Amino acid sequence: MKPEMIKPIPKYIVECIKKTDLSCYPTQDGHVRFYSYLTKNEKELVKMTVAVKNRYKKWYCKQVAMHGVHSNRCYLKDMIFYYIGGYIVGWYEQGLTKYPKWYEDGEWGWNDDKLFDPYAPIVNKEYLAKYPEYKYSAWELYQGTDILQYLRLYEQYPQTEYILKLGLTEYVKSKMILEKVANDKAFRKWLVNNREELSKTTHYITTIMQAYKKNSPLGEIQSLEKAKKELRYNSNYKAIRELFKEDRERFFLYIGKQLTNISSYSDYLKACDYLGLDMTVDKNRYPHDFKRWHDIRIDEYNTAKAIKDEAERKVLYEQFAHIAEKYLPLQYEKTTSFIVVIARSPADLIREGNTLHHCVGRMNYDQKMIREESLIFFIRNASNPDLPLATVEYSPKNKKLLQCYGDKDSKPDETVLNYVNKIWLPYANRQIKKLKSAA
Known about the structure:
Elements: H1 11-24, E1 33-41, E2 44-55, E3 58-68, E4 73-76, E5 79-82, E6 86-89, E7 109-112, H2 147-156, H3 160-165, H4 175-183, H5 185-200, H6 205-214, H7 218-233, H8 238-243, H9 248-257, H10 262-275, H11 282-285, H12 290-326, E8 338-342, H13 346-356, H14 365-370, E9 375-381, E10 390-395, E11 400-405, H15 414-438
Antiparallel strand pairs: 1-2, 2-3, 3-4, 4-7, 5-6, 8-9, 9-10, 10-11
């Protein structure tokens, strides 16, 4: 094929594209769409890709790419591809832009055949009837997007016709299956007997080959293959991979026999580890009735965790209260317009954060306070001491104000800031000095 032999889009093709476009995009918005049509270039069957766009209630289309059935390169014009933005088309030639884009020169350039081939429905697939060599290719049954790729495959493997006529379109590009069809009569018979299930649900090629070889149910083998892929690639199942490093097949057979899945076993293993059970023992590793023991272990886990969480919560509150008591002298409640009170518990932080719509109750300020990295104080109006006004984070080590925010992380007004910086901060620093001297 040669770019100089490219002819303008035939009028009937333009009408076909326009009709298809209106059917697919009845609102006719301004984004670019792609369609294609089959034609001949230097006696070679080619697919011409056409870009379509609407602007100012007018409809425009232009040729942007040409791919040939036997060519290892494609030709393109006024089009570029970005990994993030996808295919971009220039419309200077059509008068839609004042200046041409840098990639627009109105000339046909070339690239690798695999590139610049956007999804573009073919509007005249019946054109293939003109080619006797594709008479038995069953092209009219092919539902994929790349008809040229299919025809190349057919030329190499005429068995594609057999696959399509069985209704197994999903598997027509598998060279493994095509070669098996060509050389194994029993496999062809097996495909016929299983075509309903194969066409109903897409299976891995490895599933099909193993199901045929072992004469096993497709669903059973497919579940096993899915489980293997899931275990291999899902980072959440690292513990299972380690536990069954030397015994994977037995594990897969077990979950299949128990009619369960990796996710449920992962929950079970997490519960057993938390409870301190020995998972090298078969009765724990492969419980006879998995569902029953799964539910038992999950209940035991939830109970143990609730008890532990309550104990940890109690310790947290006690530690927090101890620190608050230690730095209680930094509170300031003298006769002024404002007062400063220290947070007494994590619950105080949550209430403050919810009321003022900031993060003091959601981040790790409770842990920072327990470690004495920073202290949280609340600024209140003296006339309404229960209503949150502003929140202060203070460093006792550096005797510095780290943050001071009001509602929705806003900056408090000048009277509040002046009070915090000029009155309370010097007072707090004096109290810190006294605490250190006393220690």
